[in-house]
Write a structure and sequence with these properties.
With about 230 residues, the protein is of the alpha+beta class. The protein contains five helices and ten strands, in the order ββαααβββββαβαββ. InterPro entries: ATPase_P-typ_TM_dom_sf, ATPase_P-typ_transduc_dom_A_sf, ATPase_P-type_domA, P-type_ATPase_N.
């Protein structure tokens, strides 16, 4: 896959939690993240179900929200009442404690794996195009409006607009297995007016913006327009 030049225009479903209110259409200026018209969440992937404080309460809640698990817990607790005791306490609490211990350990291992994978993705370095040249930036620090260079075999770090490729015919092949599960390569073409620019640095010399629809769950359709105003004076 050839080297490609992208514009980051991401907005996710957590926008409401970040103070942005309901998701709405947005206008993003090319290479000028400071001109964003609303507040966006960070470009961070988080697949963990719990944090440090909610881990144990969350695991216990998910176990005892089922009727039979809750029934066995209440039955074990009832054995502390002498009039209701049917046998030794360990016959109730040892099996329950063993099941809970195995569950907690399994969830802890899974959460650790998710943390390691998320950290690896969020810390992956990309090249950001600026007026002073290219600078390295972590995936988690990419902002809406940044110009990001994605190299061959690199993972696309966010929702992006394809602006330019090093291939003269303007073709680029992407694999979307992380979106729709399809592992075959798909042909993508860049914006025509930006592909005709002599170099990638010329993207910073034009005044352009993208108008994009509000975020939604449909990954197969996108409504947006790319507008080039004029050259910078």
């Amino acid at each position: 896959m050839p080297q490609t030049q992208y514009k980051h225009t991401r907005c996710c479903e957590w926008l409401r939690c970040c103070g942005g209110g309901e998701p709405r259409p947005r206008t993003v200026w090319l290479g000028h993240p400071e001109k964003r018209d609303q507040r966006y969440p960070r470009n961070v992937i988080n697949n963990q179900k719990y944090n440090f404080f909610t881990f144990l309460p969350g695991v216990l809640f998910n176990q005892f929200k089922y009727f039979f698990n809750l029934y066995f817990l209440l039955l074990a607790c009832s054995q502390f009442v002498p009039e209701m005791r049917l046998g030794a306490l360990y016959t109730y609490w040892v099996p329950l404690g063993f099941v809970l211990a195995v569950t907690v350990i399994r969830e802890a291992v899974e959460e650790t794996r998710c943390y390691v994978r998320d950290r690896e993705v969020n810390c992956q370095a990309y090249s950001r195009l600026t007026a002073r040249g290219t600078v390295k930036v972590k995936s988690s620090n990419i902002q809406v409006g940044d110009l990001i260079i994605v190299e061959k075999n690199q993972r696309v770090p966010a929702d992006m607009i394809f602006l330019r490729t090093s291939e003269k015919n303007g073709s680029c092949f992407l694999r979307t297995d992380q979106l729709d599960g399809e592992t075959d390569w798909k042909l993508r073409l860049p914006v025509a007016c930006t592909q005709r620019l002599p170099t990638a640095a010329d993207l910073l010399q034009i005044r352009s913006y993208v108008y994009a629809e509000e975020p939604n769950i449909d990954i197969h359709n996108f409504v947006g327009t790319f507008t080039r105003v004029s050259r910078l004076s």
